[in-house]
Amino acid sequence: MGKPQVVLGVAGGIAAYKACELLRRLTESGHSVRVVPTESALHFVGEATWSALSGNPVSTRVWDDVHEVPHVRIGQHADLVVVAPATADLLAKAAHGLADDLLTNTLLTARCPVVFAPAMHTEMWEHPATQENVATLRRRGSVVIEPAVGRLTGVDTGKGRLPDPAEIYEVCRRVLSRGPAERDLAGRHVVISAGGTREPLDPVRYLGNRSSGKQGYALARTAVARGARVTLVAANTGLSDPAGADVLTVGTAEQLREAVLKAAADADAVVMAAAVADFRPAHYAAGKIKKKDGEEPAPLELVRNPDILAELSAHRGRPGQLVVGFAAETDDVLVNGRAKLARKGCDLLVVNEVGDGKAFGTEENEAVVLGADGSETPVPYGPKEDLADRIWDLVGERLPESDAPVEAK
């Protein structure tokens, strides 16, 4: 079996130089990459660079090598087309089926998965025309990942920055692994919490837990690859933002509750993968608590934090909303899991055993997904992305029909 054939389209934006890193990751992981830049893109990165990095010829015009019919053949033979950066102009052309250069012709002939990684100024991204074009492309089955928030050209800052190339690569890898017919979350909005909350004792100390956020980030990445609009509420993770997810950073359980409830108002599914502190200090010390010689520390008084999972389950943001919880257990895993599922009122509960290097901070996980319908789905030990995909499988089976069906490619 030959190498997967990837077409890397590069539109004319300042972020074109970042596509070099994406190209490197694709080629080093065993993909054969054909770079198809627009004429404008060559003002930012020259043809020689693309050719040297990819090891393949580079063309921008339909008139180059006409005998090979490149405007048809390149798209026909591709296993994946990814456009990074995708400018507002390129998205408009793709949405309306315009084909005035080799890249837009390739997009029209491709019958494989297509990923767009937009990059532009905030005002251009938020313009109704761009948003309608993005909605059209997503409705047709393309993956249009959300741009990142950060420094743009000049002194501007806002949403519109090209996501980290490493994260774009992860989206491409997941899309390739699932194939063109597996974007079953297209048109859905999902909310995911990740990480561990921290409850401050004083300006330097806090009560926390060992959650790294890796399972929640795996859920976000797989949901993006399956076509969903993803809101990720991240608590103290220190991880790179997954490409395509709107990331909201929080610290405490109260902050996480506020962010999740707001985001869940129009969500099809909410997955509470974060480890939320059950308790917080009753009193916060404005100054660092000092150790006094010869004196024992004062007892630490705790109060309960809000039960976010139970609240989400009791007050759904919309009809048919699915709520998924996580339970980290150290003993009597399934017994405690069943009791928690009944107590919280969620639709699915992912139960995993923790401790002694299990689950927290690792790249692998295993779990049993319990359903309110009495189902029990074991997921064997493996990468956290595998568990994430199985969770989305179970969510997808339970979601009501979408009001916005995806057009077949």
UniProtKB/TrEMBL annotation:
Cofactor(s) demanded: FMN; Mg(2+)
Residue stretches making up the Flavoprotein domain: 5-172
EC numbers for this chain: 4.1.1.36, 6.3.2.5
Record: residues binding CTP: 278, 288, 306-309, 326, 340, 344
Family: In the N-terminal section; belongs to the HFCD (homo-oligomeric flavin containing Cys decarboxylase) superfamily.
Role description: Catalyzes two sequential steps in the biosynthesis of coenzyme A. In the first step cysteine is conjugated to 4'-phosphopantothenate to form 4-phosphopantothenoylcysteine. In the second step the latter compound is decarboxylated to form 4'-phosphopantotheine.
UniProt protein name: Coenzyme A biosynthesis bifunctional protein CoaBC
Protein source organism: Actinacidiphila alni
